[in-house]
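Protocol step 4 of 6: record predicted structures for both targets in the notebook before any analysis. Target 1:
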Amino acid sequence: MKPIKLMPALKDYLWGGTRLKTEFKIESNLEKIAEAWVLSCHSDGPSLAAEGEFEGKALAEIIDELGADCLGTRGGEYPFFPILIKLIDAKAPLSIQVHPSDEYALENENQFGKTEMWYIVDCDEGASLYYGFSREISREEFRERIENDTLLEVLNRVPVKKGDCFFIDSGTIHAIGEGILIAEIQQNSNCTYRVYDYGRVGADGKPRELHIEKALAVTKTAPPEYPFGKPESDMLASCKYFTVTRHSLMGEKELSVGSDSFAAFLCTEGECEIDGVLLRAGECAFVPAYYGKVKLCGKGEVLESRV
């Protein structure tokens, strides 16, 4: 079998833009695309096989057909498919938000928590995001600043450039700023607690729901401990939930997908063939565990994710 090229599930959240349609050629009747879930087994937005023997089938169905071994020994340790990969086009800033740990989410939301990483695919000049607190604060001050609308004053506002990378551990308060296009690799969870939303209203004309008490319970009130900005190597992230490696292609590269984990390949720039399956920028493919040698060929950039 060949790598399985996927079609994304699409989300038109109010802060989204049109770059995923105009520049990445993702077809949709939606006016704007905020997120493309390019590799997803989540019930809120499953991705489908774009071509080949599984065309039109959801990734979760394909995995059921292939059997649990296709996830590998590490992938098989999880009670469900472990990761979710997105492209995010923030034309407007996202809400200030936080994600819970596994322990809190399992007890309160009946799902796992959410640790994630961001890779800046592109951004407008002068773009920035929020990443943790700029100094340690107490929970009392955190609550007060939410109530009196001064929370942004104690957040760590970071200017960003193309190629920057951020590891967002669960409990880290954060927000993507306007004019940023991001590849996000995360735990397979859709659990988000909004803290501040700039006074915006949803499609129903009402302010979007905030989750203040839950956010107060899970947010780390010290500055983030992880390095951020331009990565020092092509190993962009390595944690107990996923690893992410960047490949800058100018010709051919051979890799191996063995027994420990499946692999996902997201093309973020240019185009790449993976064992003859063409991926253009914005497209993703799933390669099951035990696949063996796989050849990448092209000119561009690819993010490889495993567990």
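Target 2:
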Amino acid sequence: MQLELTLIAPPDADYAATDLGFLLHKHPDHLHVRSSSAGDITIFFSETTPSRATAVLHLEVDPISLVRGKNKQSDGLLAQYVNDRPFVASSFLSVAMTKAFAQSMAGKSKDRQALADRALPFEIRIVPVALSGDLDLVKRLFEPLGYRVATPDTDGPIIDLRLSATLPLGDVLRHLYVLVPVLDNFKHYYVSEDEIDRLLAKGEGWLSAHPEKEIITRRALKHRRSLMNMALARLEESLPQDDEPEDAPKVEPEEQLEKPLRLHDLRLDSVADVLRDHSVTSVLDLGCGEGKLMARLIKERGLNRIVGVDASVRTLELAHRKLRLHQAGDAKAARVALQMGSLTYGDRRWHGFDAATLVEVIEHIEPHRLSALALSLFGDARPGLVVVTTPNREYNALFEGLPHGKLRHPDHRFEWTRAEFEDWATKVAEEHGYAASFAPLGPLDDTHGAPSQMAVFTLADTK
């Protein structure tokens, strides 16, 4: 199976097509050979001119190694050897791409980073491709992402796939990584919950808004319904609200509105104080964002374990850098960790923590998903202490520049009044055996209360 990737440089371009070598971290004049679990990989350039350059990834899969060690009674001995698996582009190609183009797939280029960040004109050919479905499926998968699909000569289970698009190279490679196995509707390896992380990492920024995200997740996760539901829940959390109409009044970002009150720092300090007062030794920071609370908690000597969870790969990458985990020694690496995960789907990794925090998080979740969050956190994980903060909608009237009836941030799904927050928290506490107490955060107004509000949940037998 073979992937051909061509970069085109128009006559007035400020780059040369041969810069593709820098983008792929492969010298155009050299033959690059390596082995992977998918097979033997050979990368070479078949064309190198200033206007066109084509890099070829050729993958040769050993048919014998595919069946070595497998149960010979599973599909019959003949079916083990007589099939198309070694010869069609599928999940084998995706594995080879991660081995050969890992940095390029991540959007990185040591010598041409500005070019790696730009949308460039590419032509892509993958041959042969296994297609489980009709040609319309190819268009439904690729056209929403900006690709033009050339109609293959044949409409059958094996096609010569040709695409063209003007996109950053990293986007192209991530799209192919996900969608080629989806076309095939087959993966050659066992799919577990870890596959959700891989799918959402490669689908960051495009999969949540794709009109065919359900068929993509279903096929990518080998039709395992439980995994598909988890993936779709996490995609829903990462999907921003619809854009405001062009003539709508401009809404100031939440942080800018609250900055004069130092409300962000006050929230984090207040949560850290609660954790300290309860002498917890392990904390699960749900919706950790860029790790601002975790950065404070790292300084607490009594905390032996701090884990942050977020649905966004890019946000977790920012947190990783902010917390300097790439420089962490063994002691810090054992104490501090980041996890990609959904906040509205049960996760066994949440078990065993003294405390959990959700700092300005619940308002980013669709209201109908809050019951799933409560069940996963309070019903299943059951930490001894849970701290939740959220904006007080009543206080919005005091923010200059915030139009009446608007929320503080365009990604907020809702904002609660004090009564609404206390009603929700009290019901959750009663349903799951917790006691809830409440505190205002920020300057108190006689009429509108404080700008933010905090609920502290304690298990009834741990107060």
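Step 5 preliminary note on target 2. The first helix runs from residue 20 to 24. The first strand starts at residue 2 and ends at 8.
Proceed to step 6 after PI sign-off.
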